[in-house]
Design goal:
With about 130 residues, this protein is mostly helical. It contains 3 helices and no strands. The termini are far apart.
Length: about 130
Amino acid sequence: MTGISPWQDQDGFRSATGSLFRIALAPTVWAFHFLFCYSGAAVWCAKVGTQDGVTFLRLSILGLTLLALLVIGWQGWHSYCQCAPHDHDDHVERPARLLGHAAFLLSIISFVGVVYVAVPALFIESCR
């Protein structure tokens, strides 16, 4: 006997599953941002390809970028709160803090990656 009730075991599994989802969230947002920006720009330039279209394309990429940065920033903040040391640190177990730290670092990398994906939109002059 381990002394752990089935309900405690299920709660531990749910919290670990949530933490694993949080680890994967920021890189997934980064990947979808990359996919939507570059494929959207390719399709837009192939179908429209006018000078006015470039302004709309830039604004679209800006909107997608702000949305992605908002989601990644929210994720990073919650991950930081999970891994930050507190005075009343008894309820946060070491594996949960480790997963929070990993999610926080992935959020930082994903934030920088989203910015680098969006930088070429600043230099778009035409679809040629």
